[in-house]
Design the sequence.
């Protein structure tokens, strides 16, 4: 494979199963579309459609669909983690993903480095109340702990006015500031992932 070729996996943590529309998935797909303009091959999974068992191991046994998702993540250079805000926090599905990623603290490559080293993560957040910065901070901290690298301005988000019911997917078009943030997050993620692919983190 060309050293410049990158792969991305978007994990959409909406609480809404397919085929119902999802604002979180819409924003994730906008990041994916931007990544594709930087020669990144992209895949997307709506996590709630899969039986991801609770736990902090790479495989929680019979029926657990996380191991298959994990293999796709291991093959990717970029993770896009998309979540709605509920009660001021990331959705429970996002928390489930982070808990499963906790297992990576015990997983190392042939050089003894954490399995998620040299991978880049960006975040997408949607909600109808303020709290996007808080949610970003929660996700950033967890992703960094398990080995991901966050690019400069590696997030995009939309939050509507408080005490109203408009969803991101209800907007007639994406506001320019959000579109610009999405493009920048994708651009910086592709740049950083390509740099790490060419020059990985050193072994201890």
Sequence:
């Amino acid at each position: 494979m060309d050293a410049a070729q990158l792969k991305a996996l978007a994990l959409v943590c909406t609480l809404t199963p397919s085929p119902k529309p999802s604002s979180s998935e819409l924003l994730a797909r906008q990041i994916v579309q931007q990544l594709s303009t930087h020669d990144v091959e992209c895949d997307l999974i709506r996590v709630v459609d899969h039986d991801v068992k609770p736990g902090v191991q790479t495989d929680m046994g019979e029926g657990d669909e996380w191991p298959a998702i994990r293999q796709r993540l291991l093959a990717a250079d970029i993770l896009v983690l998309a979540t709605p805000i509920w009660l001021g926090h990331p959705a429970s599905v996002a928390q489930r993903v982070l808990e499963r990623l906790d297992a990576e603290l015990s997983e190392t490559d042939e050089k003894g480095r954490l399995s998620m080293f040299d991978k880049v993560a960006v975040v997408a957040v949607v909600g109808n109340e303020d709290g996007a910065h808080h949610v970003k901070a929660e996700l950033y901290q967890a992703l960094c702990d398990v080995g991901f690298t966050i690019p400069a301005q590696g997030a995009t988000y939309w939050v509507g006015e408080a005490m109203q019911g408009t969803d991101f997917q209800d907007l007639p078009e994406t506001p320019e500031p959000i579109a610009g943030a999405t493009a920048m997050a994708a651009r910086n993620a592709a740049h950083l992932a390509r740099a790490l692919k060419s020059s990985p983190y050193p072994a201890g």
Observations:
- The chain has five helices and six strands.
- The two ends are 27 Å apart (CA to CA).
